[in-house]
Amino acid sequence: MAEQFDVVVIGAGPAGYHAAIRAAQLGMKVACIDAALGKDGKPALGGTCLRVGCIPSKALLDSSRQFHNLQHIFGEHGITASNPKIDVEKMVGRKDAIVKQFTGGIAQLFKANKVTPYYGFATLHADRLVKVKQHDGSEVELTGTNVIIAAGSDSIELPFAKFDGEAIVDNVGALDFTEVPKRLAVIGAGVIGLELGSVWKRLGAEVVILEALPDFLAAADAEVSKVAAREFRKQGLDIRLGAKVSKAEVTGKGKKKEVQVTFADKKGEETITVDKLLVAVGRKAASKGLLAEGSGVKLTERGQIEVDEHCHTGVDGVWAVGDCVRGPMLAHKGFEEGIAVAELIAGLPGHVNFDTIPWVIYTEPELAWVGKTEQQLKEEGIPYRSGSFPFAANGRAVAMVEPAGFVKVLAHAETDRVLGMHLVGANVSELVHEGVLTMEFKGSADDLARICHAHPSLSEAIHDAAMAVDKRAIHKAN
């Protein structure tokens, strides 16, 4: 007989574990199901983000940044070191230890909040019945007054570049190279491609990034993309735009494996030979095998679960959140959706403002933005004013030897309400939240300009950019 719960959550990634813990906090009996296993073969909660995405990639980004700065930046501070080396095995081991710490942390949070975990593959049937095929082959059945689907997403595999886990990899494989590849090709100049490409470039690999689209980071503000592309190329990343890959052939065996990658751009067709190929062309909803016939839940043309603005599927008591539904595939978007749905189930207000979700790319320099770009405002016919300020004129950034980039504030031309903030530079992943807060509270550029910012700090660039909207910036010519 199926065990009854108030809420059954399918998936313990960012959206799922937030939903489960918040529902439990609100007094509900909660179960959460997850199929993932860690490197040690034991259950590992946290989803793609924690196990093989956000957290481990930041660990490697920080390790590689330290090594790069030791070689190229520390000299300007008067610090020298002879013949520095990187121990890749130790670096990856550190990353794995961080992952294990945090997956174990979620298990402890489940225990503290009395969330019952189940480990295996879940399938939703009619009447909110969830069957779980556990790793030992046994099956358990759960029923929920409410079911929250938070199944996450998987890497998109190209038909001509199948993952083999060795020569052709996705983000999982690129986090676990045992040595620095001499030559690395990356298909896709998105977040994953740029971040992991940067990791291995800093450690000594020759990296070529092949992007099919003609524009670099088209989703970002055009000025931000231009500055970022310039800085990445200065670092030695070989970014080829309009490069459409047609073939990836693995040759050799063992450590002598190579990949011959054929692509075409405006110069014609070319074949390059690399040691590793990272395919980073995006992700797709992990909906395969998730829904039994008769569940009533519908999928969109893209394979995502169909939901309304409140994350409800249209089937009584069935909700879906995170990467498996519409909207950006961002962990923090999943966090907020999971909490919102738990609160809606409890009869409380629950809402996610998609207009103020921040975007970040953790390269060097970092890119971050929230709200509308200038391109979008022009296309939508919205009158606006713009103010920007370069980090090269910011005392803290120059003292850090990280003067690249700028901050841009976009405000409505008539109301002065902030419509967007776009940043490229050091630590802008932390600074963008000034824009998020201002927009959430419907603040104006003048509000930002009149708020005292500590000196010297990187955040002063936001202050100056806001003042520049009204052409009254102090530290730059207006």
Automatic annotation (TrEMBL):
Q: Which residues form the Pyridine nucleotide-disulphide oxidoreductase dimerisation domain?
A: 357-465
Identify this protein by name: Dihydrolipoyl dehydrogenase
One Gene Ontology term of the molecular function aspect: dihydrolipoyl dehydrogenase (NADH) activity
User: Main EC class of this protein?
Assistant: oxidoreductase
* Enzyme Commission number: 1.8.1.4
Gene Ontology CC: cytoplasm
GO biological process assignments: 2-oxoglutarate metabolic process
**InterPro entries reported in the protein's UniProt record:** Class-I_Pyr_Nuc-Dis_Oxidored, FAD/NAD-bd_sf, FAD/NAD-binding_dom, FAD/NAD-linked_Rdtase_dimer_sf, Lipoamide_DH, Pyr_nuc-diS_OxRdtase, Pyr_nucl-diS_OxRdtase_dimer, Pyr_OxRdtase_I_AS
As its record notes, the protein acts as a catalyst of:
N(6)-[(R)-dihydrolipoyl]-L-lysyl-[protein] + NAD(+) = N(6)-[(R)-lipoyl]-L-lysyl-[protein] + NADH + H(+)
Q: Which Pfam families match?
A: Pyr_redox_2, Pyr_redox_dim
